[in-house]
Amino acid sequence: MLVSLQADYALRVLVDVAQHQARGIAVVTREIAERQRVPRVFLTKIVAQLASHGMLRTQRGKGGGVMLGRTPESIILLDVIETFEGSLQFNQCAHDAKCCGLSEGCAIRGFWRTAEKHLKGFLGAQTLADLLALGATTAEGVPLSPTFEPAGELRTISLGGGTAG
């Protein structure tokens, strides 16, 4: 599974807006494009999609720009990624047993379902605020926080009969 460039850009845009909004500045998309090296045409589409999901809000005209539509603590990273990717899936068989004649009782199918559950659980527990704390920096390059503590314990994976960890 490879997260698209669009989803990656969306996370960068949200971080950029959060950093500048924290300083009381409405962020101009041209400046985001320059700082994040996102083509402006592509950025416009990303901003529009984030705004349609309430993660950003936009204001036209003098003094306008882009602002967060919600607090960083309420913007869930899974929601951001799935806005651009659709529902995250590792393998079709994890959701449709009919796609493979071996699906019933298949350990690999169980593995994919469990892995997907853990990834979605992890991303669903992380917010934009957590991403900002991951070591993101201000526009001046000053670290916001040097550490990251993932939510939840992900060491043991149950595959239906035994555990792996």
What's the structural blueprint in terms of helices and strands?
Layout: H1 5-21, H2 29-36, H3 40-52, E1 56-59, E2 65-68, H4 77-85, H5 107-125, H6 128-133, E3 157-158, E4 163-164
Antiparallel strand pairs: 1-2, 3-4
Helix pairs in contact: 1-3, 1-4, 2-3
Task: Describe it.
This protein is mainly α and 165 residues long. The chain has 6 helices and 4 strands, in the order αααββαααββ. The chain has a single domain, classed as Arc Repressor Mutant, subunit A, CATH 1.10.10. Strand 1 and strand 2 form a beta hairpin. Helix 1 packs across helix 3, helix 1 packs across helix 4 and helix 2 packs across helix 3.
Supply database-style keywords:
mainly alpha, disordered C terminus, two-stranded antiparallel sheet, Arc Repressor Mutant, subunit A, two-stranded antiparallel ribbon, 165 residues
Strand and helix order: HHHEEHHHEE
**Roughly how many Å apart are the termini?**
22 Å
Summed up, the helix count is 6
Number of strands: 4
- Largest sheet, order of strands side by side? 1-2
Q: Can you identify the CATH superfamily?
A: Winged helix-like DNA-binding domain superfamily/Winged helix DNA-binding domain
The first-level CATH class is given as Mainly Alpha
Percent helix range: 40-55%
Low-confidence parts, pLDDT < 50 over ≥5 residues? Answer: 144-165
Largest beta-sheet details: 2 strands, antiparallel
Structural class: mainly alpha
Radius of gyration: 19 Å
Under CATH, the topology can be stated as: Arc Repressor Mutant, subunit A
Strand residues, percent: 5-15%
Instruction: Label the overall shape.
Output: elongated
Report the average pLDDT across residues: 78
Query: What is the correct CATH architecture?
Result: Orthogonal Bundle
Number of domains: 1
